[in-house]
Amino acid sequence: MNASPLHRQPASGVNGAPFGRLLKEWRARRGFSQLDLALAARTTQRHLSFIESGRATPSRDMIMRISGTMDIPLRQQNALLLAAGYAPAWRERDLAAPDLAMVSTALDYILAQHEPFPAFVVDRRWNLLRANSGAIKLTEFLTGPLPVESAAEPINLAVALMSSEGLRPFIANWAEVAHYFLRTVQVDAQVDGTPETLELLHRLLALPDVSTLVESFPGIDAPVVPIHFRRGDTSLGLFTTIATLGTPRDVTLQEVRIECFFPMDDDTAAILRSWAAAANGSD
To answer: How far apart are CA 21 and CA 12, in angstroms?
Structure first.
């Protein structure tokens, strides 16, 4: 008979050490002492110490309480459960899955409502999932027509902004923008603890001139970090906002981000609107 997904697998298959190591790493990452975490998770320091050392087996409920207390992402909550011998609690589905149709429609609506200004949907590691017409027009203006066939791997916006083979030649204040994105990915790597995010950070640091951005950067007076795109005689000033889905109960949905670009000035807004008007006139 197969074991119930709500019960721990036989001890012969796992031991407490993998879970204990992961728990200790997360506790250090979040800045909790054993006593602080024990009090917040409604247990004792002694029991928590036994769990970390492998002398005690955590219940599924205890793992969920600890995960919630430290605000561990759903993907990593699943990893903790697996390390302790339990089945994952959270599903991970493609945005095209039928039961995510309502969310998918909402994302398309947000992108459409933001026209003619650029907007993207990305995952936790800045891989492009969707883009509106404004985003496509901006990219094509800067780099030329996009390839008809999709790339072998997803487009990564952080890499595209920071790479000399991407948008870097068209960003007048590249160092400022790259510094911001590098710091953002560094924070992401610290927060989510996934090897994929750490791999992205290393990929960015390997790009020319990026490693030097780790050092202190001059103070910025503006309330937001602007991105000044320039090609030929055309200049575009934009800033971005990032939104996430509230109360997600799916790994994919928790990791979705909607990045919307807004014009910094009237001239930029007029150019973006003129591109949309020209496209509509040619339809």
So the answer is: 18
Please answer whether residues 227 and 173 qualify as being in contact, where contact means their C-beta atoms are separated by less than 8 angstroms.
yes
Q: Please, which residues have CB within 8 angstroms of residue 29's CB and are 6 or more apart in sequence?
A: 190, 193
Q: What pLDDT score does 153 carry?
A: 76
Burial class (CB within 10 angstroms; exposed 0-12, middle 13-18, buried 19+) of 130:
middle
- The DSSP bridge partners found for residue 230 are 235
Say if residue 59 is in the same domain as residue 102. no
Burial of 200 (0-12, 13-18, 19+ CB in 10 A): buried
CA proximity to 283, closest of 133, 105, 141 = 133
Q: Is residue 89 part of a domain?
A: no
Query: CB within 8 A of 66, min separation 6: which ones?
Result: 23, 37, 41, 58, 72, 80
pLDDT at 192: 87
Residue stretches of the chain with pLDDT short of 50:
1-16
Q: Are residues 187 and 228 both part of a single domain?
A: yes
* This prediction's pTM: 0.84
Q: Which domain holds residue 116?
A: 98-282
Written as six digits, the tokens of 55 are: 């002398």
Residue 9 located in a structural domain: no
d(CA 11, CA 106): 44
In this structure, the answer to whether residues 113 and 214 fall within a common structural domain is: yes
The per-residue pLDDT for 1 is 39
Task: Say yes or no: 128 and 258 in one domain.
Answer: yes
